[in-house]
Design brief:
This protein is α/β, with parallel strands linked by helices. It has 15 helices and twelve strands. It folds into two domains: 193 residues, Class I glutamine amidotransferase (GATase) domain (Rossmann fold); 119 residues, Homeodomain-like (Arc Repressor Mutant, subunit A), CATH 1.10.10. Helices cover 39% and strands 11% of the residues. Strands 2-1-5-6-10-9 form a six-stranded mixed sheet, sandwiched between helices. The longest helix has 19 residues. The radius of gyration is 21 Å and the shape is globular.
Length: 371
């Protein structure tokens, strides 16, 4: 059983500037390196350019050749546009018509369409973002909104998952989105292990659902690291800001302020995210009763666990477990993420229920803000 092919667009007719190589390398790293101990087979990666095999020379003298032309997009399960030329963004230079046509054909054939950074301009030009929420690098969101008024541009998020069309902000946010795709396809355990191998967090703060409520990376705070590690190891017990602050040798107000500055979220939200992550891992990797999963994750009763799953993920714990069965062909969960299915006729990923995060977290998550 294959998780599908990932086609990455390379605009070879003008080459890839060195500063755009980062976005191009992200999907190559995530989807192009086999991980047989995590999932076998892994993704099938293909680089697709407007002139397969011809090569293009960037301004820095780099030459890049691809093994596929744009026809390689049409039958792919996932299509990723890492970026578009700066001249197309800043000067309004038209995108290659054959690229726009190929993107439309791929979408019509059922491919999951993804953009990183300025790649959103290509999806927008193809009309694939009309009426959808989308994002791009914050330096270009105003241009995106002005040029494509039918797109609901949100500059405050790292990425947006709208089911069959996903967009991300620039640079490292593209990595967040690619790891999110792995989690959606293969489950939390695989995504977490892959992130660990890449020495990056599986989720940046706020990222337990599709819409991530941070526009900048979290800052490191050495004073918080040990206490947060301790909290993760003791999620099954009641935790308060006062206790965590005492372990960090801070006042509750200082701890609250430092945690929010370092992670972009409150202690309540941070703890809830950790507990939801633990619950998801337990549902994927064990046959423990729902009640026990709630207890070990610190979310309490089965009813409370169900409440948070429905509120944050849009599915019940039971439905989530069924989406990621423990024993499946290929040695991995086999599900395609909460609320998703993969029609056999096209091989594409479709979303049957969307997930958003809104409103304050319930106090039943087990931590209280300081008075």
């Amino acid at each position: 059983m294959s998780v599908g092919s990932v086609a990455v667009v390379v605009a070879e007719e003008i080459g890839v500037p060195s500063w755009d190589l980062y976005e191009l390398s992200i999907p190559c790293t995530v989807f192009g390196k086999p991980q047989p101990d995590l999932a076998d087979p892994w993704y099938e990666l293909r680089l697709c350019g407007t002139g397969a095999g011809d090569g293009g020379t960037a301004g820095t003298g780099l030459t890049l050749r691809t093994g596929h032309g744009l026809d390689g997009l049409v039958d792919a399960d996932t299509v990723i546009v890492p970026s578009v030329p700066d001249s197309c963004v800043d000067e309004g230079r038209p995108l290659a018509p054959e690229l726009v046509t190929a993107l439309r054909r791929a979408h019509d054939a059922g491919a999951r369409m993804v953009s990183l950074c300025t790649g959103a301009f290509a999806l927008a030009e193809a009309g694939l973002l009309d009426g959808r929420r989308a994002t791009a690098h914050w330096m270009h969101t105003a241009q995106l909104a002005e040029r494509y008024p039918k797109v609901d541009v949100d500059e405050s998020v790292l990425y947006v998952d709208d089911g069959d069309v996903l967009t991300s902000a620039g640079l490292t946010a593209g990595l967040d989105l690619c790891l999110h795709l792995v989690r959606r396809d293969l489950g939390a355990h695989v995504a977490n292990q892959l992130a660990r191998r890449m020495v990056v967090p599986a989720h940046r703060p706020g990222g337990q659902a599709q819409f991530v409520e941070l526009s900048v990376p979290a800052r490191d705070d050495e004073g918080l690291g040990p206490v947060l590690d301790w909290a993760r190891a003791h999620l099954d017990r009641p935790l308060t800001v006062e206790e965590l602050a005492r372990r960090a040798a801070m006042s509750p107000r200082t701890f609250y302020r430092r945690l929010r500055a370092a992670t972009g979220t409150t202690p309540l939200r941070w703890l809830l995210n950790q507990r939801l992550g633990r619950a998801r891992e337990l549902l994927e990797s064990t046959d423990l009763p729902i009640e026990k999963v709630g207890e070990l994750s610190g979310l309490g009763t089965a009813n409370n666990l169900r409440h948070h799953f429905l509120r944050q993920l849009g599915v019940s714990p039971g439905a989530y477990r069924r989406a990621f069965p423990r024993e499946a062909p290929g040695g991995y969960g086999g599900g395609y993420g909460e609320g998703y299915s993969r029609p056999s006729s096209t091989g594409s990923f479709r979303m049957s229920s969307k997930t958003t995060v809104s409103g304050p977290a319930s106090q039943s998550a087990g931590v209280r803000p300081p008075a």
